[in-house]
Amino acid sequence: MNKTEFIRAISDKAQITQKDIAAVYDATLEVITEALKAGDKITLVGVGTLELKRVEAKTGINPKTKQAVKIPACNKPVCKFGAAYKAKFN
Prior knowledge:
41% of the residues lie in helices and 30% in strands. By secondary structure, the chain is α+β, with helices and mostly antiparallel strands.
């Protein structure tokens, strides 16, 4: 499912225009991004938690050349789904 299909599905379920849903979708992603950049953790009750994890620098191997490559440290967004949400799929 791509963004357009996702917005259409929500629009159909909520009986709201696709234009309004698209605006909410874009605003939601913006708020999530800003919160994570600020170091906040976002807890969506019934779904899970979004947060940034720090990944330290490490040495990897280029599979083509077999040469060692330095991989710089970075922040990685992580989503941890809650047990109640996971249970919906089993």
